[in-house]
Amino acid sequence: MVKGEKQKIGFDLDGVLADHKKIKKKTADKNYIYGKASLGAGVMAGARGALKTLGKDHEVFVISRRRPDNRRYARKWLKDNLDFPKNKIFFADRDEDKAKIVKKLGINAFIDDKMSVLKHIKGRTGKFLFDESEVYKKDRYGSIKVVRSLKDFLRLVI
Ligand SMILES: [Mg+2]
To answer: Given 37, 73, 125, 153, which residue has the most CB atoms within 10 angstroms?
Structure first.
C-alpha cells in the first residue's frame, strides 16, 4: 500500500460489511444464515461511512465466499443496503480462492473477519483482520493487522 495513491480496497461481506449477529442468535445453521435469511442482516457499524469515504478516491470491491445458490442474496443485500455496484462483487468457493481473487484484481488492502482467509494472501497486499469481539489480543500477527472497527480500518488505509 502506498498512501496518497489510488488504492484497490477489498472487503469481505459476511461479518465485515454485513452484520449477522442478530440472525446468529436465532440459529446456528450457516446455510440458513447465508441463504435467504441473510437479507435480514444489519449493516456493520461504520460500513456506510467507510465505503463512502473510500469510494471518493479509491476503488472498492467485495470478495465473498458464498455458495453459488446463496450469491444472489449477497448481491441483493449489497444493492439494497449499500447500493454497491454489481461489477465490483466477486465470489469464491473456498477461503483460499479469495486470495486468488485478491491477487488477480491487484487488491492493495483486504479486510476479512477470518484469519485463515488472510493467511492465504501472499505478496504486498495489506491484510486486516476485523475482530470486533477481541478474540485476537495482539495488534498484529505477522503481516496481518488486527482492527476492532471499520473506523480503525479506514484510519489505517487512507
Ligand atoms: Mg467473513
So the answer is: 153
